[in-house]
Amino acid sequence: MDPAPEARPPLTSPQALAALFNYSLLGPDLTDEGIASGCRAAVGRCIAAVTVRPTDVELAARMLEGSTVALAATCGFPHGCSTTAVKVYEVRDLIRRGAREIGLVLNTGKLLSRQFQHVEMEVLQAARACHESGARFKAILESCYLAEDIKVIALKICKRCEADLVATSTGFGPSGWSPGDLSLMARILKDVCGIEAAGGVETLDGALSAYSLGAARLSSPYAAAIVDQWGVRLAAEAAAADSGGSHSK
Questions:
Q1: Distance separating alpha carbons of residues 140 and 158, to the nearest angstrom
Q2: Is residue 249, in this structure, part of any structural domain at all?
Q3: Element holding 217 (H helix, E strand)
Q4: Domain range enclosing 179
Q5: Rounded to two decimals, what is the model's pTM?
Q6: Are 196 and 218 in contact (CB under 8 A)?
Q7: Residue among 234, 169, 235, 180 at smallest CA distance from 202
Q8: How many helices (H) and strands (E) does the chain have?
Q9: Which of 4, 113, 138, 229 has its CA 20 to 30 A from that of 128?
């Protein structure tokens, strides 16, 4: 049995929660205005990062210029089925266009085919391309398709290749993060790679649960709304505490 996760520091402000979020702007129906609006929302709340589709990188770079919000982009998204050469080119092209973090989807079909050397070479080349350019590298698993033994192998590949982050899901599979996945990732990755809970982070309680289970990053298309809800809840709790204190006098 995996050990219980260590207690995490309390999130005492909306900004503390915002600092964990990756605002996922990847929906196929998002317009340019939708991307711009999402970037403005991220800047206004000091969200940690925004992830956009490759075609939106230059627009997002303009919108985020001068802010503290990191610009991330996806590579081989959402199934990881591009060829290795295409993925490596895409990584370099996205960085050239302004992305400072790249999320590479591991090839699920190759993992299931136990073609682990192929997967590791892809991850290694993409990670090197990022790190040589000063960008962060995120490996994305589609955990819902993988048995535990395959997950363990995939996580060890990410660890050997020195991924900065490893995400549980793309958010486009049939299911997203699970407590079991976060526990497994914490055990395998330890302090080498950060863990991102992705897919299914749709509510405030879900976000807080993923954080309590060890996620260092939360990815969601609802990031702005969830941060706002945390501010409302904290204010209500503070008001209730004040009210209780005044009644006891």
A1: 9
A2: no
A3: strand 217-220
A4: 15-238
A5: 0.92
A6: yes
A7: 169
A8: 10, 8
A9: 113
Torsion angle (degrees, nearest 10) of CA 104, 105, 111, 115: -40
* 162: pLDDT strictly greater than 90: yes
Closest CA to 140 of 196, 206, 181: 196
Count up the domains in the chain and report the number. Answer: 1
What is d(CA 123, CA 137) in angstroms, rounded to the nearest whole number? 9
DSSP state of 248: T
Which residue, chain included where needed, has tokens 């954080």?
Answer: 211
Nearest 10 degrees: Cα torsion 52, 54, 60, 61: 130
Residue 79 in any domain: the answer is yes
CATH number of the domain where residue 197 is located: 3.20.20.70
CB of 47 within 8 A of CB of 23? yes
| SS3 letters across 8-61 | CCCCCCHHHHHCCEEEEECCCCCCHHHHHHHHHHHHHHCCCEEEECHHHHHHHH
| pLDDT tens-place string over residues 172-226 | 999 999 999 999 999 999 889 999 999 999 999 999 999 999 999 999 999 999 9
Q: Is residue 4 part of a domain?
A: no
Instruction: Over range 66-89, report the average pLDDT.
Output: 96
Read off the pLDDT of residues 12-42 as tens digits, 9 standing for 90 and up: 999 999 999 999 999 999 999 999 999 999 9
Predicted local distance difference test score (pLDDT) of residue 220 = 97
